[in-house]
Amino acid sequence: MNAAARFFDADYAGYAEDLPTLRAFAERTGGPLLELGCGTGRLLVPLAQAGYEVTGVDASPCMLDIARTKAEAAGVSARVKLIEGDFAVAPLEGTYKLAFAVMNTFLHLATQDEQVRALRHWHTHLAPGGLLLIEVLHPDVNQLAGLEGKIELVKTWSEPGSGATVMKFMARTVDPAEQSMKVTLIYDEVGPDGLVRRTHVPFSLCYLWRFEAQLLLEKTGFAIDGLYGGWDLSPFESTSEQMVIAARRKK
């Protein structure tokens, strides 16, 4: 995700749907907190500003550089620890009361073995009774089939510094038998002179069904504490676009 690092903040500048609920869970559990796949610190910084000790893990040094700069600018560097590495296996220090992986981060684990290994690793670093929150898409078979072969314009914004217009496109290929989705993000920067600079960011996701996710968590030492259809903690239903799973480490 190094190639996407400089677009990430602008892309998600207005997104904070998950933050109030994460704050509420943090109040419920206490700290310290652990974000798995923290990106540029979109959540780490406001949670640190709320007084929590937070650790973020991410494989992208470029993302972490931006997160570090944001933490310093906000005056919360002392409460923010950043770890560069694979969020599934990176060495962690200490014990956490709340861990979370949002925005489909968990789906970057490509196989069931990787999913189990990651969950067991996180389990060992959660306090007994500590919570793990995972937010993933809720697969819709018809919707997934309709994505095949399409390139969609997702969002457009202006870069204040360069004056360029950025257009974000997304292309997806779905393999139902493998429960996999190949995604390519395409960022077109159109400069004031009309020249276009294009950046491709390809990655793969392995999507999960509800009971599959529950079995994975139960197999790795967690008990389901709640299953929701979004960050408003509405009931999970057939029409839900998201699954937000709260799982408690068994004592």
Within the CATH hierarchy, at the fold level, what is the topology of the largest domain? Answer: Rossmann fold
Query: Multimeric state of these chains?
Result: single chain
> What is the count of distinct domains?
2
Order of strands in the sheet with most strands: 3-2-1-4-5-11-10
- Unreliable residue stretches: none
Provide structural commentary.
- With 251 residues, the protein is of the alpha/beta class.
- It folds into two domains: 2-138 and 208-249, 3-Layer(aba) Sandwich (Rossmann fold), CATH 3.40.50.150; 141-206, N-terminal domain of TfIIb.
- It has seven helices and eleven strands.
- It has helices at 5-11, 19-29, 44-49, 61-74, 112-124, 141-147, 210-219; strands spanning 33-36, 54-58, 80-84, 96-101, 126-137, 151-158, 165-175, 180-190, 196-206, 222-228, 242-249.
- The strands form two sheets. A seven-stranded mixed β-sheet has the order 3-2-1-4-5-11-10, with helices on both faces.
- Strand 1, helix 3 and strand 2 form a beta-alpha-beta unit.
- The protein is globular and about 60 Å long.
SSE blueprint:
Layout: H1 5-11, H2 19-29, E1 33-36, H3 44-49, E2 54-58, H4 61-74, E3 80-84, E4 96-101, H5 112-124, E5 126-137, H6 141-147, E6 151-158, E7 165-175, E8 180-190, E9 196-206, H7 210-219, E10 222-228, E11 242-249
Parallel strand pairs: 1-2, 1-4, 2-3, 4-5
Antiparallel strand pairs: 5-11, 6-7, 7-8, 8-9, 10-11
